[in-house]
């Protein structure tokens, strides 16, 4: 067989899936992908990325990724864009500070520092660079406080340390060091449980669920979210808005987790989250760290519709949502990426490019480091009509797309 007759990567995925006796839905569930993603990889409407191949390979009985990509494709382990601050964040996460002396920072100071860091994440156009600069010191200060404080101050320091780990998880999620992300999840959950703080534990469960879903362990993610809701729900009626905020966020995470596996039950969790926000949170409320708000609930509706493979529903849900109302620059950039995914599902390449350009103008690093955005831009460079291909190539160069 000549190289021209070699099956394409998507065709290889389909053959191996059928040989393994798996439906698309089952492979998607096992791999942490949506059924629509698997379908579009198989029919060639989406490129097979290295990340997707790594997620599917164990369930297809593949040990050598060449079995998916074919002999004519060269794979580089260095191809994924990584942020320059990763090295210093890694050092901060793996510095154990065995010997400590002096006085720790006060919990009031640390709370202000953590809140400021989250505010930076949500308001900076280049949030990864901005947060990457402050994360090492923030991790060091909160780690130190958790060791040196005692009593209630230690418990509060531990809850703030958990938040620092959560921010580190958000920063690291797209930078390719999966083991380091697992470390932030484990450390964040341990700190929250040592704090014996239900809100901190619930937040840590939310972050753990996102990672579990991303590695194909959606059922475990939903179980962790159910447990966390059990901690929060009984106290929502008699507590402040922060409790309702966290409960709504847990339901939103469950909705997205279900949608990623093609489960229409996602809308039940989404409806519950919307009801909590409408009923229990003041008008105009925006969570300081979570950004839970009425606009964010609508953002999740668009995400769920896209992951369920329903671009018409995604566009319907997005119709009345003004992106300027989304109270986070990072989430606004991701919303444009989701709209681009919706256009991509319909094969509307001009709209896909336009929306990716809007995402890049809003939050350049969201597009530069998002695997799905990089994949769409790369495909546009190869597949878009000649009338817009030069624009696609220009965007790809701006965001550092590696496969032109």
TrEMBL record:
Every copy of the HTH cro/C1-type domain together lies at 13-68
Q: Which Pfam families match?
A: HTH_31
GO MF, any single term: DNA binding
The protein's name is: Helix-turn-helix transcriptional regulator
């Amino acid at each position: 067989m000549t190289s021209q007759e070699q099956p394409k990567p998507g065709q290889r995925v389909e053959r191996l899936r059928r040989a393994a006796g798996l439906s698309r839905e089952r492979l998607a569930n096992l791999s942490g992908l949506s059924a629509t993603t698997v379908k579009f990889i198989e029919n060639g409407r989406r490129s097979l990325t290295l990340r997707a191949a790594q997620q599917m390979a164990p369930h297809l009985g593949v040990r050598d990724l060449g079995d998916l990509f074919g002999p004519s494709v060269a794979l580089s382990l260095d191809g994924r864009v990584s942020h320059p601050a990763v090295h210093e964040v890694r050092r901060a996460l793996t510095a154990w500070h065995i010997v400590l002396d002096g006085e720790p920072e006060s919990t009031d100071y640390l709370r202000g520092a953590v809140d400021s860091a989250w505010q930076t994440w949500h308001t900076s156009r280049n949030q990864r660079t901005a947060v990457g600069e402050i994360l090492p010191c923030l991790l060091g200060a909160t780690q130190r406080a958790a060791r040196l404080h005692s009593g209630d101050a230690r418990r509060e320091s531990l809850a703030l340390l958990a938040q620092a780990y959560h921010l580190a998880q958000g920063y690291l999620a797209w930078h390719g060091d999966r083991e380091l992300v697992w470390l932030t999840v484990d450390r964040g959950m341990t700190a929250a449980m040592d704090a014996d703080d239900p809100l901190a534990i619930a937040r840590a469960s939310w972050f753990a669920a996102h990672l579990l879903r991303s590695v194909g362990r959606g059922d475990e993610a939903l179980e962790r979210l159910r447990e966390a809701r059990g901690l929060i729900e009984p106290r929502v009626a008699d507590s402040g808005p922060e409790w309702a905020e966290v409960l709504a966020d847990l339901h939103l995470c469950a909705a997205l987790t279900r949608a990623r596996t093609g489960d229409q039950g996602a809308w039940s969790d989404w409806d519950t989250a919307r009801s909590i926000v409408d009923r229990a949170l003041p008008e105009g409320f925006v969570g300081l760290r979570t950004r839970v708000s009425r606009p964010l609930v609508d953002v999740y509706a668009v995400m769920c519709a896209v992951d369920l493979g329903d671009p018409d529903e995604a566009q319907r849900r997005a119709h009345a949502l003004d992106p300027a109302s989304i109270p986070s620059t990072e989430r606004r950039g991701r919303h444009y990426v989701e709209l681009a995914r919706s256009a991509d599902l319909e094969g509307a390449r001009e709209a896909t490019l336009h929306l990716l350009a809007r995402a890049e103008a809003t939050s350049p690093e969201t597009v530069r480091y998002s695997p799905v955005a990089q994949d769409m831009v790369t495909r546009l460079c190869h597949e878009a009509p000649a009338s817009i291909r030069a624009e696609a190539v220009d965007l790809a160069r701006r965001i550092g797309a590696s496969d032109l």
